[in-house]
Amino acid sequence: MKVVWAPPAREQVAEAFAFISAQRPSAALRWFDEVVERAGSLSSFPDLGRMMPEPGRPEVREVIVDPYRVVYRRDPDIIVILGVFHSRQSVDAEDLGV
């Protein structure tokens, strides 16, 4: 299964990396590597994450890469990374475009 990043998710991961990097550059690199690895593993394990509670839709799931939530939609033939949100941030369906 193919994994693609929606444009907002690309921007959000870059912003999160910049934020973490400003304080702890090496931690930012480790965090980014883990985000990329976890997102990539969804191609083989699309149900790895839990169902995201806010939209309450089984195809919208999330994996945690502390302290961020990597939110994705599991479609029949593709995984779409919808967004990367800090765990303290409120997220609703409008934020995800679903």
Helix content: 25-40%
CATH architecture, by name, is: 2-Layer Sandwich
Major sheet: size, sense and barrel closure?
A: 5 strands, mixed
CATH class: Alpha Beta
Low-pLDDT ranges: none
Q: How would you spell out the order of helices and strands?
A: EHHEEEEH
Number of strands: 5
- The structure class reads alpha+beta
Number of helices: 3
Helix-strand blueprint:
Layout: E1 2-5, H1 7-23, H2 25-41, E2 50-51, E3 60-65, E4 68-74, E5 78-86, H3 93-96
Parallel strand pairs: 1-5
Antiparallel strand pairs: 2-3, 3-4, 4-5
Helix pairs in contact: 1-2
Entry summary:
The chain is an alpha+beta fold and 98 residues long. The chain is 39% helix and 29% strand. It has one domain: RelE-like (YaeB-like fold, 2-Layer Sandwich).
Give an account of the 3D structure.
A hairpin with an 8-residue loop joins strand 2 (50-51) and strand 3. The radius of gyration is 13 Å and the shape is globular. Helix 1 runs antiparallel to helix 2 (25-41). The chain has helices at residues 7-23, 25-41, 93-96; strands at 2-5, 50-51, 60-65, 68-74, 78-86. The mean pLDDT is 90. It has a 5-stranded mixed β-sheet. The chain has a single domain (2-89), classed as 2-Layer Sandwich (YaeB-like fold), CATH 3.30.2310.20. By secondary structure, the chain is of the alpha+beta class.
